[in-house]
Prior knowledge:
Layout: E1 2-9, E2 12-19, E3 35-42, E4 45-49, E5 52-55, E6 60-64, E7 70-74, E8 80-87, H1 89-93, H2 103-106, E9 115-116, H3 125-134, H4 140-163, H5 176-187, H6 195-201, H7 206-217, H8 221-238, H9 243-249, H10 255-266, H11 270-281
Antiparallel strand pairs: 1-2, 2-8, 3-6, 3-8, 4-5, 4-7, 6-9
Amino acid sequence: MGFRYDFASTGMVCSHSLDDQPKADDFFMHAHEMMEIFCFLSGSAKYNVEGNSYPLEPYTILIMRMSETHMIQLDPTQPYERMSIHFVPQLISKVDQQETLLRPFNARAIGRLNKYDETCFSGKHYRSCINAILSQIDSEKAQSVLIFSHLLSLLAEISDAFDRRPDKADENLQNGIAVEIVDYVNRNLFSDLSLQSISHRFYLSCSQVNRIYKKATGSSLWDYIVLKRLMSARQMILGGTPSTKACTECGFHDYSAFYRAYKRQFQLAPKADRLLYEKNNNRI
């Protein structure tokens, strides 16, 4: 047995979950089109972000910006509890026009400086913010205000911790070759990438590349490339770019294959997706 609590309001989703007997197959590589703050509360696990592996302790925070792929790898014999908040940046921009609270998400390289543990913070206030967010109120409006106000406080704590990192020094990266492969793919995401060209670049066989990447992320390299291209194309489409142009500019050469992959990933065709986004975005 376990529990799951979800709360959603315009531009923000908060979730608190406990799996007494987590199934590893239920957790896979994915990415969001919202900012995410993930807080690990209990269990035995490590978290992979863009090929970089972070060990987890209770009250470790991971932050992910939009389209940053991530996946948890856990010990299924240990209960797994976590809290996450997803939010659109416009929600924060309404009260922080300079977006200073979003610098820890945006002012860093992809898959770097995602982790904040207790040693990063100047005190325990960040824990108080998390515990307050975990509390529940009967009134939906009051719950929304509570979560949003403590989200701002938590973002301020993370921003302060980010600023105090010496020279924004990166943590010791694990899975070094996997991280190098991810960096190379992201620099060349829309070019004619293939497993063969990547293998040639790193002087490895195709099977070695796939094995290294899958061990680090739980996903095949090609699945990663397709997901990243689809998410980039979606951002262009939601911004008004015709889907045919987004298709070619994001590295797809066959529109019918792109259309099927888009619909499979986002459960909507490109045009319907944009119309729904415009409708919902007018509410924020």
